[in-house]
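The protein record quoted for completeness.
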Amino acid sequence: MTGRSKFGFEPLEPANVKPRKREVGPMGAAVREAAGSLAESTETLVEQRRQNASDAKAFRAAQGEGRVLEVLRVDDIRTDDLPRDRIDLTATAGSDEMEELKASIRARGQKEPIEVFRTATGFQLKKGWRRLTALKQLWQETGDAGFGMVTARVSEGPADRIDLYIDMVEENVIREDLSFAEMAQVAITAARDAGLDGQGADVLVGRIFASLHKMKRSYIRSFVFLLQELGDVLPYPKAISRNLGVEVARRLQSSPEATTALRKALASVTSPDQQTDVLSRAFAPPGDRGASGQGSKRRTSVKYELQVGAAKVTAQEGECRIVSKTDFASVDQDLLRMAIEAFQRVLREG
């Protein structure tokens, strides 16, 4: 066979067949590009929505846990739901330390947020009473609207009310900025809180101050007893040193009949020093008590502390320690000697 068809044509050789070149036209290219962009944008949109949902969930969790900072008006924050852990708020508001805090905020702004929790009626303060008070005072003194705003960490409030008391005192307890009388007063006030199911102050000491060493909790319980027995006739509870408060509480527990006489003696106290003197002499041996103002010698091993202006004074047998911001090393020696001689002269003259 020759391989010719009946029409006389020979079959084409495959090597001679050229493939047809097909190019995408302008319309096809546009359609393909549009389809690719749509697919890419759809994937991006899905990923963005997924990320937004994750971010929203994380934000809600942070908000519920009080990790979100908000800027609030100072007038929108109430402070009447929890008792403050300071006994004398008026004195604290007018103290030198408050003026120092105000000077810092005036110069550098608020550096640490306060903590508040939401209630049905608005915001209630949890932590940061001094910072909030400083801002309010600055706003009143300067009229600067910037001081009328406060940065706050907002939470929805813990499920257990006892956690509010723990959060309130935690910062000051860690800084050792609360006296034993103030810590005892927190427990006493919490015991009156209807939301705590009538738990006694002694029990609440163990819950509110659970992070403290058991010996410190024992000291606080001694002050709880002291304030419950003598609180209304103790005008300066913060001035009572740990050792003195614990000793007086121990003596009153063993000799409750002495409470009446001690209350009567405290009724005429007009200064922290007088209060310390009355408490120190209450259970001293008769021969050591002496009459006040007679210059008689009184032996006691009790240690106590008191605040004199910005200076903190610690007194015990054979030692009087003064801690203040004064650089005593820079004071002229003759001047310092004169001051100490005047101090000793006043002590001798009674």
Remarks:
- The longest helix spans residues 26-64.
- The chain has a mean pLDDT of 81.
